[in-house]
Design brief:
By secondary structure, the protein is low in regular secondary structure. The protein is built from three helices and four strands; from the N terminus they run ββαββαα. The model has no long low-confidence stretch (mean pLDDT 76).
Length: 162
């Protein structure tokens, strides 16, 4: 049986297609934006990798851990060890947990280096035009340039003669 579509009338919208399927779990399109960096490591006990954020650890277990999807994770704050990723997330998702110290020095996470100042101080920019490469033209003129005398052909008379 052949399916027949009716033509779309003016002012009507065409039939809608179904929405796209949701992205698969752990895909690049599905990003989490939790800004917390823990002072202690979240340790993968399968391979020994250490992570400062839940997103880094989650990505490791989903994509790069040599043990596949088998989770064996340790909290560097209290050495809680679990094979359940949701249990670890529940353990770490407490107010102020990211500021807690590690229980051992080996679990300390060094914060990422912040960009420093340049070695030599940069000259102060005097104006917006200078910052865009147009340069500084010196002090502004306060006096007006002299007016040029009009040429004879530029003059006219308001009197009615020739």
């Amino acid at each position: 049986m052949e399916e027949h579509q009716e033509p779309v009338q003016a002012g009507e919208s065409p039939p809608s297609s179904p929405p796209p399927p949701p992205p698969p779990r752990g895909s690049v399109r599905h990003q989490h934006t939790d800004p917390r960096r823990f002072n202690f490591a979240i340790v993968c006990m399968n391979c020994g990798n250490k992570f400062a954020t839940l997103q880094e650890a989650r990505g490791h277990f989903l994509r790069t851990c040599p043990s596949g999807l088998l989770v064996d994770v340790l909290c560097g704050h209290c050495e809680l060890r679990t094979s359940s990723w949701p249990s670890m997330c529940q353990h770490l998702n407490r107010a102020g947990m990211q500021r807690q110290p590690p229980c051992k020095a080996e679990y300390r996470m060094v914060p990422p280096a912040k960009p420093g100042f340049p070695a030599a101080p940069q000259p102060q920019i005097d104006s917006l035009a200078h910052s865009h490469g147009r340069g500084w033209s010196g002090p502004r003129r306060t006096e007006k340039p002299p007016m040029a005398e009009p040429a004879a052909s530029d003059t006219f008379s308001l009197q009615g003669g020739s």
